[in-house]
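Worked example

This section walks through a single chain of length 228. The input is the sequence exactly as stored; nothing has been trimmed or padded.
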Amino acid sequence: MKKLILAASFSSFTALAHVIPAPVTHLFVPSGFDNNDNVELVVKGKFPNPCYTRNKVEVQVKEDKILVNVTATKNDKQNNFCEPLAVPFTEVITIGSLQGGDYEIIINEKLKQKMTINVASSNSVDENLYASVDYVDLGFTGGASGEAIIVGKSLSDCLILDRVEYLSNEKDTYSILPIMRRISQDCAENSKRIDIPVKVNLNKFASKEVLLFVRSVDGKSVHSIIEK
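Given that input, the structure is written out below as tokens.
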């Protein structure tokens, strides 16, 4: 009898989970991708309470359309209580390599935006050799401009920072490309920290939220969303 009572008591607090479209609110589309790049997008949203969690992302490329389904798991507790606390989330969406051309991105049949993939001038994995980026250390938390530090690694004594390039989609995304240069062919691996100062000017963006999108040598980006 005691076992039956305990089982009934436990089941009254279990959750019924089901998958729903994630409540995405903003799609960021970086500029500057070639057909030899790993294409990435970033979406932002907000769960209404902690009873929602991430589930998975599904991507389909059909001709000139990129269809993305971002889902979440909603846990309906049997006692009907979820903490009244909104939970922001961001999701990096990996599209992979695309042929050169114009595409339309559709997220959850809700957010739509155009993207152009350029044709690279060489067949190498990437035309530029980027720094290995770990994170972005912001020197400011908001406003129209400020300074930041890209913290990463140089993977060899033969590599030095050559330059930093900036690309804007003129809407809400600021891409930063820390480009390395080889100074010798005969060298050994030697990972060491590098700090790359960058200046960030967000005055030209109309959006109140701007994505800093930093390219890295492994093909994965490091990003930070700034509220102006």
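What to look for: Residues 19-117 form one domain.
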